[in-house]
Amino acid sequence: RELDDFTYVVSHDLKEPLISIEGYSKILLADYREVLHEDGHELLTSITHSCTRMKNLINELLALSRVGRLRESMTPVSTNGVIKEILDDLEYTIKQRNVCVERADNLPTVLGNRVHLVVLFRNLIVNGIKFNKSDRPVIKIDWREADSMYRFSISDNGIGIEPGYFDKIFVIFHRLRSDLRYDGTGAGLTIVKKIVETHGGKIWLDSTIGKGTTFYFTLPKS
Ligand code: ADP
User: Fold this and answer.
1) Which of 122, 179, 182 to mutate to test the pocket of ligand 1 (most atoms within 8 A of CB)?
2) Which atom of ligand 1 is nearest to the CA of 184?
3) For residue 114, how many C-alpha atoms fall within 13 Å in the half-sphere facing its CB?
4) What are the pLDDT digits (tens) for 52-70?
5) More confident residue, 174 or 153
6) To test the ligand 1 pocket, which listed residue (171, 175, 215) has its Cβ within 8 A of the most ligand atoms?
7) What are the DSSP E strand ranges found in the chain?
8) In this structure, are residues 100 and 119 in contact, taking their beta carbons and an 8 Å threshold?
9) Banded model confidence at residue 10, pLDDT cuts 50, 70, 90
10) Ligand 1, atom 11: nearest CA belongs to which residue?
11) What is the mean pLDDT of the chain?
C-alpha cells in the first residue's frame, strides 16, 4: 500500500516537469525553426518523442498504483455487460482487423469493481487482437465454475508466447524483444494481474508459439 502511494505521488510529480520539457521543445521547433540547423530539428524531435514515451510510462505507473490505492467497495457486476461495453468500444478495430469474437452467451455476475473489471477484460482482448498475425483473428471468451470462484478464459489464435516467458510478461514494462514492433509499454499485464489479485483471484496462461494463447483467471462469485 505504501509503495502504491509512493508510486502515485512520484509519478504525478514527475509529469509536471516533463510537460514543461515537451512544451518548450515544441515551442523551439515551431518558433525557432529558421535559426536551427537540421541537426537541431532532429534532436528536438527526439526529445519530444522521448517525452511522449515517458508520459505513457508514467500514466501506466499511475494506473497501476490506482488499482492498489482505490479499494472501492465491491458490487455485483455482470461480466456480460462488461464484455458488451468493451466490444462496442472496439467496434472499429474489430471491423478493421476482421476479428471474430466468440463468447459464451451466459457470462456470469461476479463480485468486483466494475471500472477495474473493464480494464482487465479489455487488456486481454486487445492483446489477443494485437499480438496476432492472422487474417481472421479469433478471440474466445468463456467461463466455468471453479469452487467458490468463476474461472474465465480468453483465447486467441495469435503469435503465442514461449513458456520461458510466462512469468516475465507480468513484470512491469517487460516486453518480449521480438514483439517490440507492436505498440505498447509493457504495463498492461502487470495491471491485469494486480486487478485479478485485488479481487482475490489468480491468473495463469497456456500458449503455443504460432498457434495462440489462452489466459485464465478467477474472480469471486457475487
Ligand atoms: P504491451 O501490450 O504494452 O506490450 P503487456 O503487459 O500487455 O504489454 O504484455 C507484455 C508482453 O507480453 C507483450 O509485449 C507481448 O510480448 C506479450 N503478450 C501479451 N499478450 C499476448 C498475447 N495474447 N499473445 C502473444 N503475446 C502476448
Assistant:
1) 179
2) 3
3) 12
4) 989 988 988 888 888 877 6
5) 153
6) 175
7) 75-78, 100-103, 109-112, 138-146, 149-156, 203-208, 212-220
8) no
9) confident
10) 175
11) 92
